[in-house]
Amino acid sequence: MNKYRFLVLTDHTKHSKENSVYAIVSTLAKHTQCSEVVVVSRGNSHNASFFQNCKLINLWGHRVHPENGLNFEQGKEVLSAQQEQVALADFDVLLMRLPRPISDTFLRFIASKMEGKVIINHPTGIIETSSKAYLLHFPELCPPIQLCHSIAEILDWANRFSVVLKPLREYGGKGIFKIAAGKIWEGNNSFEVAPYLEQLQNKIETEGYLVMKYLKNVSQGDKRIIVVNGHILAASLRLPAADSWLCNVSQGGRSVLAEISPEEQQIIDTITPNLLQAGIVIYGADTLVDDDGKRVLSEINTLSIGGFPQAEQQTGRPILQQTIDQIITYVEQQTGK
């Protein structure tokens, strides 16, 4: 039986008590095929040259012991301290659990320094897939969408039907707005269209915005489907607050257990091969109910996916153990062992 050394990159200063990384590394440390797991935080000032300047230095991290695990309260203390120095070359597998902000420069740096090792999710795959424009690879699975680089393009779409506009690399519902009934809606606040778009003109023209048809059935919820190594492990339905059109929990929505529909299974079956080919092992797919009452793909999340301990509580199934088992399976598939 092969055993593997795991390094986990994260940022404990961005965490809440609900963050999945603690449950994941605690479960991983107990696995019979894990010889060690060390967590290194971007929030540790001693690691600044590595994370900020892409310098290959020994890193200060915390070794997770099987009998103790690691929790949020411990993490606040131990991940800031000079616990133990380690080198990238010491490890067989790198788990990326870094939230934004994260630059493409850093992701390419990690990919080059860990070449020949297993990385989950792979940095080059993150660069490719973490932009919302990646949905354009699967237009047949999505509501009507277009990447717009001008105010004129956006207004042309808004004249056809109500639309939602998404910045390409934000998350958690940040920066999303809607154009409906001649107004721009940011949450429940309305603004005049022309002045609002003019303020964003530079970002629209340089980065672009993904424009998506606004679906009238948004009140039926945004379903998050968690997938690991091609296997659906759980799904939760995020319902918007009574006075909101945004389903994100961070924006006031709530989450309940959900089942997978046949069209959602088809969505996962379609997108998973592309994502695995890009080195994306863990991802979250979001779906909405379209105007015909069917679930369609609205977002793919491939950077630091959460919700694993919550899914385990909701389902009563060993989601964390299943996650680690699939990670180990993927590692063995990649190493040919």
Compile the SSE list and pairings:
Elements: E1 4-10, H1 21-30, E2 34-41, H2 48-53, E3 59-63, H3 72-78, E4 84-86, E5 93-96, H4 104-113, E6 118-120, H5 123-129, E7 145-148, H6 151-158, E8 163-167, E9 177-180, E10 183-186, E11 189-192, H7 193-199, H8 201-206, E12 209-213, E13 222-228, E14 231-239, E15 254-257, H9 262-277, E16 282-289, E17 295-301, H10 308-315, H11 319-335
Parallel strand pairs: 1-2, 1-5, 5-6
Antiparallel strand pairs: 2-3, 3-4, 7-12, 8-9, 8-12, 9-10, 10-11, 13-14, 13-16, 14-15, 16-17
Helix pairs in contact: 1-11, 4-5
Structural account:
There is one protein chain. The chain folds into 3 domains: 126 residues, Rossmann fold; 70 residues, 2-Layer Sandwich (Dna Ligase, domain 1), CATH 3.30.1490.20; 86 residues, D-amino Acid Aminotransferase, Chain A, domain 1 (2-Layer Sandwich). The chain is α+β, with helices and mostly antiparallel strands and 337 residues long. Helix 1 crosses helix 11 and helix 4 runs antiparallel to helix 5. The model has no long low-confidence stretch (mean pLDDT 92). It contains 11 helices and 17 strands. 30% of the residues lie in helices and 27% in strands. A 6-stranded mixed beta sheet has the order 4-3-2-1-5-6, with helices on one face. A 6-stranded antiparallel beta sheet has the order 7-12-8-9-10-11. A 5-stranded antiparallel beta sheet has the order 15-14-13-16-17. The radius of gyration is 21 Å and the shape is globular.
